[in-house]
Amino acid sequence: MSKLKSLRIDREFFAKGVFGAAAFTAVGAVILICVFLFSRGVPAIWEAGIIKTITGTQWAPKSMIFGLLPMIVGSIYVTTGAILIGVPIGILSAVFMAKICPKPLYRILKPLINLLAGIPSVVYGFFGAVVLVPQIQSIFDLSGGSTMLAASILLGTMILPTVITITESSLRAVPREYYEGAVALGASHERAVFRVLLPAAKSGVMAAVALGIGRAIGETMAVIMVAGNQTIVRLPWQVTEGVRTLTANVVIEMGYSSGFHKEMLIATGVVLFAFILIINTVFNYIARKGESPKAVNKTKKGPPTGLVIGAIAGAVVGLIIVPNIGIVPDVTETLVSIDSITVRGGKVIEGSIVDAEIYNGVIRKATVDGKSAGLIESLVINGITIEGTNVTEALSDFPSVKDEAIITGGAVKNVVFHGAFIDAIIGALIGAVLAALLARSMPDKLLKVLTWAAGGITVTVLTFIIGYILIKGVPHLTPALFEPEWNTTNQSMLPAIINTAAMVLCTLLIAVPLGVFSAIFLVEYAKRGNRFVKVIRTMTETLAGIPSIVYGLFGMIFFVQVMGWGFSLLAGAFTLSIMVLPIIMRTTEEALKAVPDPYREGAFGLGAGRLRTVFKIVLPAASPGILSGIILSVGRIVGETAALMFTAGLFAQILGSPMSSTRTLAVHMYVLSGEGQFRDQAYATAVVLLLVVITINTLSSLIAKKVSKA
Amino acid sequence: MKKVVSPLQILVVKEGTDMNETKESKGIKTPQTSQNIDTRSAPKAVNNKFVLKNVNLWYNDFQALKDVSMDIEEKKVTAYIGPSGCGKSTLLKSLNRMNDLVEGCRITGDFLLDGQDVYKTSNLNLLRKRVGMVFQKPNPFPMSIYDNIAFGPRTHGIKNKAELDEIVEDSLKGAAIWEETKDRLRKSALGMSGGQQQRLCIARALSVKPEVILMDEPTSALDPISTGKVEELVAQLKKDYTVIIVTHNMQQATRISDKTAFFLLGEVVEYAKTSELFANPQDKRTENYITGRFG
Asked: Does the domain made of A74-229+424-473 have the CATH classification 1.10.3720.10?
């Protein structure tokens, strides 16, 4: 009897140890990433000079010049653009879905939105590259359509499902009594929805916006496929210029960097990380401020929030539009006159009719009558001909030429003051006033129209994306694409499909026990309100906000290089494990918490130990919730590209061992879309990815139904 | 039940104007007695604010109201009592068509408000402005006290700040909560106590200058002291408004109402002056209920 008892206690003790160890490992992973990032990135920034790194306008790794400003500004620009497009449409669409749209339409819309939330970013990127970029190029008559505008529109579309889903569920969570109260006062449906329900759902809407921003700023693959990736960015911006974001900077140069260059890429990751942390903190603060009972008693002064938000949005819109039109001319000082310019093909153009920009000493965008003049071969200044296509040297004789200068009216001129700054201020003021007026006196009927319009836009855009991919892709699903061996002519995706399955399996083998055990420890073993639990929870939340490229960076340096695993399934799986760990932990925690305490009390009351209670009573009851978290993770793994390119590598054959390089389907899609001659195969791959997402969504909705029945 | 023949009338926009004064009440036999709570006014002719005729209501296949007919007197408090699920709240919510929000709800019969059928009105929002409602659970909006009250008038197009200020003050005074709130108008309404919240909701209902106020068990979520305050308030409100109140509490009905209707299984078993209904119930079922044999 006593032997039995001691055995049982030992087993309990052992189990607690295992669960605790899992929780510590999860925390260890976060700490590892933070330590790794900061211990290498911060010293690098320090060495390069903090101010110089943050404000440096030039990024030239070969010359050891590491100015991050173009990328920082690029990330901010692209994200702002995405928010301006995605958030208003997203919120209005959510209102549409939750409160306005007819039920039959909703039954089609909801799965469509879920589908779009699950589509891998490479597919979006590919769509942007083949549809959006050429359109922008022709509409704005540009030499290339890969621009900030393209990236903003694409990211705006990508964050739509996120914004819609969260806003919709928070709208649905608003107590019915609020609606009834408003309607009972004679408010119309629209008025009740917009003036009572939406303000009441504010914290949820905030969370939706925060997640949207996080997704936009952390997005890598889709951005590099449409943004152009130039490291030249000017203030204030022009939306028709190419741009490189922080994430793009990492992924573009990670593959070949070494030495201090690599350290500076890690530093880029640190800056990105810092951005995410700041955004999360700010939005957490706003959300908490809105919810805490303390705030309720605080005296609220000043204009209503809607007015402020409207004014800010208007200001930003004005900030974009007006400088792009250009009202106030630049103030310039004339340096030297140009007689003529010879462009490629020997054509000589009179200097006075050429307009061009000089950036970092290089002449770019030479135009005559608004049309591109082509590449410059030589120019004649003061009667002296300066040969060569590299105009940097030509201008090196004029040291007074600033980094940014212009050629106009037959002379090189320094820009002393950008008129666009004044334009921006004017635009911001006009936009703010207009938006504030509009927000104040927007009639409910107009809001209803806007809601329908937003719903319409969402449906159209999303249907178009899916339809386009299906129409272009399905005809190319040929047997050749499913041959067991990949070669350069068949571009078979079968190996990639098998590799993806292996990657999913391997990642889950690591992440599921770790995540589920940690959650069990947090919910069943740790005392409620324990500080350690709080720390773990904050950490997992932080981990969830890190862009996948940062995981990729960490994985490449830690697993691939330090651990010496090389590009391998194992390195990829470990990297992805850390990435999906927060998802599994969170969903498992929620599922465990949802199991009613009387279940546990009932088991304890029969003399069952904690371990037995957890495994026989709690886990079975929580299993659908846990399963849905795992399925969500599978979606992430299947769609991931950025974190895998430099951890699992690009090897296109069926993997031989866990240590062999492994190309998954999403990575395969990225590689294909980069190569012009395999566009059809890329479409076909996109279709297969879509099918995978549909399967995953169907599974999770089946499970959700089971949960709601139970 | 007496029958009232009233000419069909176009919905009156402004309160008090062009009221149908010709309504005759042939059936009323009893004059005001000393037992009546309201001894201040004793109108000779009684106006019926609402006239309900042969009301039937279904939630999908379930019939929640069976052939209900009754008149609601103007500027009186009418109480609906009965056990849970008897249809009293259902009938209340039909009066300002809140049942429209319930899916599968089907209604037949006449609901005449000043002679005009509320189910034939073209302007639902105006109807709800005229027939205000206070709910079982206090439901202040998550806004400041001021904005809660101003929501109604703003909804109906009042934008002038001074006018709004006046309405807010009047409404809060009308709900006897002005003294408690005048220094914290800009603070969130969610920070108030439950009783204060419910009086705020009454003030909010008053803000749109309704003619009828429907109260759906307004004190069931409140403590006894708050309940007392709300009851006092109801007694004052009937000077200016027609009040219909659903209550589970029979003592409450006797304390505040002029007339009481006893509901059972979707039928109105008995509808009479409160004093009579409780002192001398005509129906056995009423007697069983008010003496506590079921319910």
From this structure: yes
Looking at the structure of chain B, the number of domains it has is 1
In the CATH hierarchy, which fold is given to the domain comprising A18-45+495-664? MetI-like fold (1.10.3720)
Instruction: Return d(Cα A457, Cα A463) in angstroms, integer.
Output: 10
Residue B226 lies in a domain: yes
Which long-range CB contacts under 8 A does A259-264 form with residues at least 24 apart?
A260/A44, A260/A47, A260/A64, A261/A61, A261/A66, A262/A557, A263/A40, A263/A41, A263/A43, A263/A44, A263/A47, A264/A44, A264/A45, A264/A48, A264/A53, A264/A61, A264/A66
Instruction: Say if the Cβ atoms of A178 and B142 lie within 8 Å.
Output: yes
Instruction: Answer whether residue B14 shows pLDDT above 70.
Output: no
Q: How far is B96 from chain A (nearest CA, A)?
A: 8
Chain A residue numbers touching B132 (CB-CB < 8 A): 184-185
**Residue in B closest to A293 by C-alpha:** B191
The Cα A568–Cα A646 span in angstroms is 9
Query: Does A185 contact B151 at a Cβ distance shorter than 8 Å?
Result: yes
CA distance A296 to chain B (A): 5
Domain region containing B204? 73-97+123-290
Residue A181 and residue B101: Cβ atoms within 8 Å?
no
CATH of the domain at B180: 3.40.50.300
**Distance from C-alpha of A162 to C-alpha of A131, rounded to nearest angstrom:** 22
Q: Does the beta-carbon distance from B151 to A300 stay under 8 Å?
A: no
Distance of CA A366 to the CA centre of its chain: 34
Q: Evaluate whether residue B105 is within a structural domain.
A: no
Taking only residues 147 to 186 of chain A, the set having a beta carbon closer than 8 angstroms to any beta carbon of chain B reads 175, 177-178, 180-186
Q: How many residue pairs bridge chain A and chain B with CB atoms within 8 Å of each other?
A: 84
Pairing of strands B131-134, B242-246: unpaired
Residue in chain A lying closest to B126 (CA): A186
Please report, as a single letter, which amino acid is at residue A710. A
Q: Say how far apart CA A115 and CA A123 lie, in whole Å.
A: 12
pLDDT in tens, A249-278: 998 888 888 888 989 999 999 999 888 888
- What span, in angstroms and rounded, lies between the C-alpha atoms of A556 and A571? 8
Q: How far is A289 from chain B (nearest CA, A)?
A: 13
Regarding an ipTM greater than 0.90, the answer is no
Q: What is the pLDDT of residue A351?
A: 73
Residues B55-69, buried b or exposed e (16+ Cβ, 10 A)?
Answer: bebeeeeeebbeebb
Amino acid at A354: V
In a domain, B85, yes or no: yes
Sorted by where each begins, the domain ranges of chain A are 18-45+495-664, 74-229+424-473, 331-417
Contacts for B217 with CB less than 8 Å, ≥ 6 apart: B89, B136, B246, B247, B248
| The two domains A18-45+495-664 and A74-229+424-473 share their CATH topology (first three levels equal) | yes
Inter-chain touch A297–B188, beta carbons under 8 Å: yes
Instruction: Say if B191 falls within a structural domain.
Output: yes
Better-predicted residue by pLDDT, A478 or A246: A246
A301 close to B (CB below 8 A): yes
Alpha carbon distances (Å) from B111 to A369, B32, B60, B127, B242: 75, 27, 20, 12, 15
Closest CA to A666 of A653, A682, A677: A682
**pTM > 0.90: yes or no:** no
A293 part of contact set with chain B, CB < 8 Å: yes
Strands B259-264 and B77-81: parallel
Q: Nearest CA of chain B to the CA of A178: how many Å? A: 6
Cβ neighbours for A222, distance < 8 A, ≥ 6 positions apart: A121, A122, A124, A125, A128, A151, A154, A155, A158
Residue A354 pairs in a beta bridge with A368
pLDDT value for B1: 42
B60 near A CB under 8 A? no
Does the pLDDT at position B12 exceed 60? Answer: no
Q: Choose the closest CB to A185 out of B140, B152, B187.
A: B152
